[in-house]
Amino acid sequence: MIQTNTTLYYGPACTPLGLFQMSCPTIDKASHSPSLSNVDVVSYRGEELYDVNSSYVINGQRLTYTIGFTNDTIICVSPLYDGYALCPVHPVFPAIGIPTPSASALNASTGLRLDLELSSSTEGINVTVGVYNTLDKVNNVTSASDWAIYSNSLNDICGNQVAAFAVYQGNYGAGNFTTGSPLAMDNVHGGAVCPQLSPSVVYSFSPDSGVASIPGGRFASGPSSMNVTLTYTTSGYTTCSVGTLSFRPSDASGLWECAQNDAYKFNPFPPGTYTVVGLDQWGDVAILHFVVAGL
């Protein structure tokens, strides 16, 4: 979806009428007629199209079609009609505002910097969180368990167990985000239960880099190197259709669960302010916000 609620005038407003060989009313620029409102602009196979839902009475029956068209040509129709290509479904995502796109927290004792970045796309909010070695030499850092909140309830914690994030509905800061409840996005019901790192694992960070190597252990069958930057895209969160979603720890990780296994419900972000908290296992925290506008 590129744009919503557009109004077309004159010739382009009549293009959908050609689907049923209907004639266009006489153009009257004084009254801006004909016109067609509630038109969306969408991307379709590499080009921009107008997209509208139109109802027509055919043989006494009212039918509604989604029509994709240019200024003078019908490109697709849904449901299928008269040999035209089928129009895809174009979900409408609300506008997302990001007051500040990036934040970081430097840990002077480890030489590591926690970075958090936000951006938006037609798929929702993109969260990037990672740990970067600010030293110009190899930096060997011993693992810790100093997460600011319960680590197993974080999103993407299984990605590398170094950095992760949580999203809260509301406007929180460093002094009060622990009083809120993170939204459930990852490890919901059938999510993976990630293994626990062996005690006292040493991360060997490359100079000026977000790449670290670790020895073999429960996290990996042998020595491995990994980028400790994660990117996650989401447009909402999960709740229970019946009852309340609860977090059940299970060894090194846990699952968000509903009392009824089939009662999970995905919820697009409703309008409002949201807080994104980036965290790492050494206790560092970076905070950003995004605002979802009403449609």
Textual characterization of the structure:
The protein is an all-beta fold and about 300 residues long. The protein folds into two domains: about 80 residues, no CATH class; about 200 residues, no CATH class. The chain is built from two helices and 21 strands. The longest helix has 4 residues. It is elongated and about 75 Å long. The mean pLDDT is about 80.
Instruction: Calculate the terminal CA-CA distance, rounded to whole Å.
Output: 13 Å
Count up the helices: 2
Radius of gyration equals 26 Å
**Uncertain residue ranges:** none
Name the beta content range.
Answer: over 45%
Strand segment tally: 21
Overall form: elongated
The succession of helices and strands, N to C, reads EHEEEEEEEEEHEEEEEEEEEEE
* Main sheet summary: 5 strands, antiparallel
Total domain count: 2
Order of strands in the sheet with the most strands? 1-2-3-4-5
Indicate the percent of residues in helices. Answer: under 10%
Structural class: mainly beta
Give the averaged pLDDT, no decimals: 81
